[in-house]
Amino acid sequence: MTIGPDIKEAIVEVGLGYTIVRSAGNVTGEYLTAKPNEQVTKPFIRENFLEAQIPYDSVMVSGDVIEFDTTNDRYLIMHFTPTLFENTVIRYESVLYKTNVKVSILRPGQRRNNASYLMETYWDIIAEDADILLTTPLFGQDLETDEQLGLLGMEVHEAWLPSSLGIQLLDRVRITSGTRVGDYWVVESLRKYRFESCDVVKLRVDQRPSTTTSSSTTTTTSTSTTTTTA
User: Fold this and answer.
1) Which of 136, 125, 113 is nearest to 167 (CA)?
2) Sign of CA dihedral 159, 164, 170, 176
3) Rounded mean pLDDT of the chain?
4) What letters, b where the CB count within 10 A reaches 16 and e where it falls short, cover 27-63?
5) What is the average pLDDT across 161-174?
6) 229 or 170, greater pLDDT
7) Fewest CB within 10 angstroms: 7, 21, 38, 101, which?
8) Comparing C-alpha atoms, which of 208, 143, 137 is closest to residue 171?
9) Under a CB-based contact definition with an 8 Å cutoff, are residues 221 and 127 in contact?
10) How far apart are CA 178 and CA 166, in angstroms?
């Protein structure tokens, strides 16, 4: 007889209730126990990372976003690993990354204006109000601080987000919550295989216009709406 149900009973008794946030419908009624990451001397890790134990019969998977019932804090499931005993899953070990902003993801495309016959850049909405973790690069990866190239400040950030969002290179990330609502970022690099079902992207300030028309290709870098002719 497996000990999974006994472990689940203990987790439900002392743990935290949460909701799995899914576009197809939220899942409620599950519990986990959580503790801060062991690297508690690093403030960012203490604030944003949790290690969790989850019952053996949870429907959670890597890439899910969960919301704690009490605090309403949302976390991204980065790791979801089974613990085995006597060839049976008795619980899951997980690492949770706290999300800190909501974003919309937009993808550029081009089409010809039927009236002017000029090529227009437009933006398709790929995802809206998606929960992600956005921060500056950590632990010596690429840039730890912003670079100054001449008089142009090139601000660099990293983001962790579910692979299910389908983000691609050159997509635009628009902040829709928090103190930096309206900021635009461009996806400069994409790491799809570092984590299962989660992507890591490097972002820079996006100076592409919201709408651009030209006789052939987009050439402007202004953040305002512009029109050029051949």
Assistant:
1) 125
2) negative
3) 83
4) beebbbbbeeeeeeeeeebeebbbebbbbbebebebb
5) 96
6) 170
7) 38
8) 208
9) no
10) 23
Hey, what amino acid is at 85?
Answer: F
User: Hunting for tokens 């900021």 — which residue is that?
Assistant: 183
- Secondary structure of 143-210 as H, E, C letters: CCCCEEECCEEECEEEEEEEHHHCCCCCCEEEECCHHHCCCEEEEEEEEEEEECCEEEEEEEECCCCC
State mean pLDDT over 27-46. Answer: 83
Helix, strand, or coil (residue 13): helix
Placement of tokens 């008794």 in the chain: 13
Q: What is the number of alpha carbons within 13 Å of residue 42 lying toward its C-beta? A: 10
Residues 32/94, Cβ–Cβ less than 8 Å: yes
Strands 74-85 and 147-149: unpaired
For 39, half-sphere exposure in the C-beta direction (CA atoms, 13 angstrom radius) is 9
**pLDDT of 12 above 80:** yes
Q: Model pTM?
A: 0.81
What domains can be seen in the chain, in order of their start residue?
4-98 (2.40.10.270), 101-227 (2.40.10.270)
Q: What is the DSSP letter of 229?
A: -
Average pLDDT of the residues in 115-132? 90
